[in-house]
Write a structure and sequence with these properties.
Number of strands: 2
Shape: elongated
Number of domains: 1
Number of helices: 4
Oligomer: single chain
Strand order of the largest sheet: 1-2
Largest sheet: 2 strands, antiparallel
Helix content: 40-55%
Order of helices and strands: HEHEHH
Strand content: 5-15%
Radius of gyration: 14 Å
Length: about 70
C-alpha cells in the first residue's frame, strides 16, 4: 500500500494568485513572490501553480542568487 505523501498534503491546496484556480505546485516566500505576482498581502508564504512558479523563478532569479550567496 504505497502512497505519495506530497499528493495527500497538497491535494486540496490552490494557487493563491488572484484569478487563478489551479492546483498548488510549490510554496515560496511572499516577499519575493510579491515582486512578480499579485496575491493577498497579509501572507508570509504563497502557494503557486506550475505556471506561476515558473514566472516567479524567472522574475526573482537575481534576488534568489544574492540570498544563496549570503548562506556562507
Amino acid at each position: 500500500m504505497a502512497f505519495n505523501l506530497y499528493e495527500i498534503m497538497s491535494g486540496d491546496k490552490k494557487c493563491q494568485v488572484r484569478d487563478c484556480n489551479e492546483e498548488s505546485h510549490k510554496t515560496v516566500p511572499a516577499d519575493l513572490a510579491s515582486k512578480v505576482v499579485s496575491f493577498d498581502s497579509k501572507l508570509t508564504k504563497v502557494h503557486l501553480c506550475k505556471e506561476h512558479y515558473k514566472k516567479y523563478k524567472k522574475g526573482t532569479k537575481k534576488e534568489r542568487e544574492v540570498l544563496r550567496s549570503n548562506w556562507d
